[in-house]
Amino acid sequence: MNPKKQNVVNALLDEYRKAVHELQSVIVNLQNDNLSKIVDPLTDNPDCKSIQTILAHVVASGYSYCVYIRNLKDPSAQRPLRINRETSQEYCNDLDAVLHYTDDTFAQIFDVELEVFESDKKMHTSWQQEYDIEQLMEHAIVHILRHRRQIERFKTILQESN
Predict the structure, then answer these.
(1) What are the Cα distances from residue 85, in Å, to 16, 24, 45, 141?
(2) Which long-range contacts (CB under 8 A, 24 or more apart) does 36-43 make?
(3) What CATH number does residue 23 fall under?
(4) pLDDT-derived band of residue 5, with 50, 70 and 90 as boundaries?
(5) How far is the C-alpha of 41 from the C-alpha of 24, rounded, in Å?
(6) Organism's domain of life (predicted)?
(7) Helix, strand or coil for residue 130?
(8) What's the pLDDT at 4?
(9) 6-41 confidence digits (pLDDT tens)
(10) 74 vs 5, 25, 58, 77, CA distance in Å?
(11) Residue 1 domain-assigned?
């Protein structure tokens, strides 16, 4: 096996990019005044009250996944601050920046590094899960898909309320 192969890495990154681009296509034409409207006032999760809070969470999470991975080799990597934006275009730009940061994170990660089976070599997350790199990126992909779906539902609710 070639230790410098990135076939699986590239497949994960392609699917991650696809998920981000699908999310961007859902938000690109969003009216900016709808970003901060509270759509789910009953949720206990502050990240899921409006499209703005969802997108700020998704962007922050995208950086967090990379920081977990970077910390495997360099424990000084830091998460950027979470920012609530005022326009959907700013969130599209933020998501592009997350993709760039993710590509940089994986520039020197090879397929042989993706899977580990020993618990002490896995990343321990703030939500009390343990992941290897492959599992974390699979989680990251589905995370975007779930929130894209949530935003689509929020857009429908906003349209019906107008």
Answers:
(1) 22, 14, 19, 22
(2) 36/84, 36/86, 37/158, 39/154, 39/157, 39/158, 40/154
(3) 1.20.120.450
(4) confident
(5) 24
(6) Bacteria
(7) strand
(8) 81
(9) 999 999 999 999 999 999 999 999 999 999 999 999
(10) 22, 34, 23, 6
(11) no
First to last CA, the chain: 58
The structure tokens 């042989």 sit at 112
Tokens of 153: 């539902």
What is the domain count for the chain? 1
Q: Residue written as tokens 């995208």?
A: 62
Residue 2 lies in a domain: no
78 located within any domain: yes
* Assigned domain for 157 exists: yes
Instruction: Identify the sign of the CA torsion 131, 132, 133, 138.
Output: negative
Q: Count other C-beta atoms under 10 Å from residue 55's C-beta.
A: 26
